[in-house]
Amino acid sequence: MIKIKINPQCAWGRDNEVRAYIQSIYDRQQKYGVDIDNKFAEPAAHANNNGFAIVKNFIDPQRLEAVKQEFEQIKEAGNLQYNDFYTEQVAHPLLNCDSVFDIVFDDSVIEIAKNYFNCMPAVTNVQLRKSKATEILEHNIPGNGQTTLFHCDKDSPRFIKFFFYLDDVDETNGPFTYVKESHIKKFEGWDSKYRWKHREIRSIYGEDSIVQCTGNVGDLVIGNTSGFHKGTKVEKGERTLLSVYYSVHPTEWRSTFGGKIRKEHFDSLPEHKRPLADFLVRSEK
After folding, report:
1. Which of 16, 73, 101, 109 lies at 20 to 30 Å from 8 by C-alpha?
2. What CA–CA distances, in Å, run from 92 to 75, 258, 281?
3. Single pTM value for the model
4. From the first residue on, what is the mean pLDDT of each consecutive set of 10 residues in the chain (285 residues)?
5. What is the rounded distance in angstroms from the CA atom of residue 162 to the CA atom of residue 182?
6. 80 three-class SS
7. What does the alpha-carbon distance between residue 170 and residue 212 come to, in Å, rounded to a whole number?
8. CA 87, 88, 93, 99 torsion: positive or negative?
9. DSSP helix/strand/coil, 175
10. What does the H/E/C string look like for 102-136?
């Protein structure tokens, strides 16, 4: 089992939130047991220690191509959640993209997450988003484009996102970018504001600590986004990204649940996978 790395001074809620987080792990261990396949321990351990991990050739690219095709079909039908000069996004991908369901509940994905949390986690959110090239400076991009600035997510003191690139991503088209070990090493005043410019973070952590997670379709990028991260601004082309969030409690400790899943899809899950949907709403749609 992984020895969990967590620093109360790096959490939004400090000691109280960390204690509640540890209790959530214990509760899920007691409820669902601890049956973990250790062959997936390496990427989980890397994410635990460094805050991120990259797994090359993790998934068949054709499965991701199916997701991209569904995204484009939804766009052509005019059914995107929003569509502006920088960002296009699908509402509730688990409802609207059948190909997403199989990836979110994929056995290998689940085992990495179980290794990371030392228990059966749950899905808290799924996003399917395209970012497009712009010449606007990153700190001037409005709305959802503000994710191009460094920030720390408030979902939990420790959780992970699985990022699946639906396009090959290099330094020019928006790689997920992470400040190594910033999930456990933060500076005084890190929570004085939410968005930070690249030069500000560089002056504190150094350029060598800022890692651009480039990759091809089929690679997996994992990030504990309670640490400093951003989606680097797209300079050329575009980047379509499927993001799947896993945690051990509801997002930001809200009593409301996360995203939506079709009831028929939930009913199709084998019994051992149903805990993954603990925080999802069963929709009749």
Report:
1. 109
2. 14, 10, 11
3. 0.95
4. 95 95 97 92 97 98 98 95 92 94 96 97 96 89 84 96 98 97 98 96 98 98 98 96 96 76 94 95 81
5. 18
6. coil
7. 9
8. negative
9. coil
10. HHHCCHHHHHHHHHHHCCCCEEEEEEEEEEECCCC
